[in-house]
């Protein structure tokens, strides 16, 4: 292994250039470090079984009764390390004498956990290394712990900034690659954001950085049952800036499922951007009847519940289609008591479900997508998604939107929504369907009257760094 050149530290965090060598032998008892063990188990399951960290870790914490500071540390380490797996691997690769692919996967998990602590937390380096090495010794013996100790000691010789200066592409030659590594995104995702924003400048950096922040939790107050102001007073949250039904919970407000209004079905958890896209469908004026609405991709039912509640007030019925039976059941649960009929089936074959051409006044297509607009919610997902996923999804999105245009009546409105800023999933799909069917693109910005920074239109692309919402895309079309 070549020793990286030392450079002056730019960060003020405490640094120990040479953390102590591991002590103790193979007979040492397993460590009692519930926070790091929980984080490590999460990293392992994410790698080995494609688990979702944001679903698995809360379960581990509950089962092991890990609370308070340990729970906070486990969360910071597990989510933080998952978010920057690619960056951690670049640094680790520079500190090992064999390719990372040849490192035993279970040891790689440990290295990632240790590397994250060294680069991105205030944990003193000697504590980060020693506690990580203890985890290895407990599970793998002294030989492996020696290897981990040696690699992490190398990592600890530089701060994150210094590693980035050494490893990131030259910004003058590859600005996107540089920002991608600095903000811990795959390069292709940074490219997608740059294409959608139309810049590789400071705004791209802000957009990438926003994915590394933990999002605020939003509730939606069910229309006709409770107002946003009442919900805010009951939950200690504050009325959200844009959605007429939104409440933003204070950071650290705890599990929203335990809040009284949520248990009593007066409210549910829903990103403010999702609320706005559902409400937008209801906003353009239409002539004549306005009582038959359709949600063509309904599971798990967040937007159906909001649309169904609006229809309960004005009179009408929502048909909700969902292909996956278990998700259709979730729609039924989340919309119980509302004027909604749930159909299990494929939205591309609506006739098989008894849904006729030209029968609906408004149709929502909240299509399956890459989810590149909600990376801040799913720590590991940016590294799991592949550019090759896009082709299959865009085919499905196009087919679903064409089916929606067929199902809406002349004069009715179709809303096309994805949680992604990828141009292939957004404007390219809509442009193609407009061209093929002759529907009219509405100025969708008019149906987001509360929102600033909506650009030139006619469609709406929300962004975490601009609006504090997920990066939802919405296009409204009139037949
Ligand atoms: C983005 S999610 C919808 C989220 C939902 N509108 C909400 O607000 O809770 C897309 C949904 O479409 C479903 N889906 C995928 N292919 C489908 C198809 N061909 N027909 C109907 N639903 C489909 C997926 O199972 C998934 O539940």
UniProtKB/TrEMBL annotation:
UniProt domain SAM-dependent MTase RsmB/NOP-type: residue ranges: 193-479
Gene Ontology MF terms: methyltransferase activity
SUPFAM superfamilies cross-referenced by the UniProt entry: NusB-like, S-adenosyl-L-methionine-dependent methyltransferases
Keywords carried by this UniProt record: Methyltransferase, RNA-binding, S-adenosyl-L-methionine, Transferase
Binding site for S-adenosyl-L-methionine: 297-303, 322, 346, 366
Pfam families: Methyltr_RsmB-F, NusB
Broadest EC class assigned to this enzyme: transferase
Segments of skewed composition (Basic residues): 1-21
Any one Gene Ontology BP term: methylation
Region Disordered: start-end pairs: 1-34
Superkingdom of the source species: Bacteria
InterPro entries: MeTrfase_RsmB-F_NOP2_cat, MeTrfase_RsmB-F_NOP2_dom, NusB-like_sf, NusB_RsmB_TIM44, RCMT, RsmB/NOL1/NOP2-like_CS, SAM-dependent_MTases_sf
Active site residues of this protein: 419
UniProt EC number: 2.1.1.-
Family: Belongs to the class I-like SAM-binding methyltransferase superfamily. RsmB/NOP family.
Stated name of the protein: RsmB/NOP family class I SAM-dependent RNA methyltransferase
Organism: Actinophytocola glycyrrhizae
């Amino acid at each position: 292994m070549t020793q990286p050149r030392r450079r002056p530290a730019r960060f003020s965090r405490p640094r120990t250039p040479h953390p102590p060598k591991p002590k103790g032998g193979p007979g040492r008892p397993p460590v009692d470090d519930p926070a790091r063990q929980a984080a490590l188990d999460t990293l392992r399951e994410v790698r080995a079984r494609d688990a979702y960290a944001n679903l698995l870790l809360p379960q581990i914490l509950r089962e092991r009764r890990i609370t308070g500071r340990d729970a906070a540390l486990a969360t910071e380490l597990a989510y933080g390390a998952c978010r920057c797996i690619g960056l951690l691997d670049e640094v680790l690769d520079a500190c090992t004498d064999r390719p990372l692919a040849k490192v035993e996967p279970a040891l790689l998990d440990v290295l990632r956990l240790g590397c994250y602590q060294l680069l991105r937390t205030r944990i003193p380096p000697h504590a980060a290394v020693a506690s990580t090495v203890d985890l290895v010794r407990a599970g793998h013996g002294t030989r492996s712990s020696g290897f981990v100790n040696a690699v992490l000691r190398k990592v600890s010789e530089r701060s994150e900034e210094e590693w980035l200066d050494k490893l990131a592409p030259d910004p003058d030659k590859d600005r996107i690659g540089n920002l991608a590594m600095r903000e811990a995104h795959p390069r292709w995702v940074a490219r997608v954001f740059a294409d959608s924003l139309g810049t590789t400048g400071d705004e791209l950096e802000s957009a990438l950085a926003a994915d590394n922040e933990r999002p605020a939790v939003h509730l939606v107050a069910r229309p006709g049952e409770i107002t946003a102001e009442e919900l805010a007073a009951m939950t200690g949250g504050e009325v959200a800036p844009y959605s007429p039904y939104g409440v933003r919970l204070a950071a650290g407000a705890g599990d929203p499922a335990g809040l009284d209004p949520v248990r009593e079905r007066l409210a549910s958890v829903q990103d403010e951007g999702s609320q706005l896209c559902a409400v937008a469908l209801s906003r353009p004026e239409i002539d004549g009847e306005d009582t038959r609405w359709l949600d063509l991709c309904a599971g798990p039912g967040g937007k159906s519940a909001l649309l169904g509640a609006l229809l309960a007030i004005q009179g009408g019925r929502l048909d909700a289609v969902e292909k996956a039976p278990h998700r259709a059941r979730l729609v039924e649960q989340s919309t119980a008591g509302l004027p909604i009929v749930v159909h299990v089936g494929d939205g591309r074959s609506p006739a098989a479900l008894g849904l006729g051409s030209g029968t609906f006044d408004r149709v929502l297509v909240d299509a399956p997508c890459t989810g590149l607009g909600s990376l801040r919610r799913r720590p590991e997902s940016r590294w799991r998604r592949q550019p090759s996923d896009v082709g299959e999804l865009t085919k499905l999105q196009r087919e679903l939107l064409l089916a929606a245009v067929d199902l809406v009546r002349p004069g009715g409105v179709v809303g096309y929504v994805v949680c992604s800023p990828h141009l292939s999933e957004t404007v390219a799909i809509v442009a193609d369907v407009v061209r093929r069917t002759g529907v009219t693109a509405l100025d969708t910005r008019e149906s987001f009257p509360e929102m600033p920074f909506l650009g030139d239109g006619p469609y709406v692309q929300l962004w975490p760094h601009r609006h504090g919402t997920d990066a939802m895309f919405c296009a409204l079309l009139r037949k």
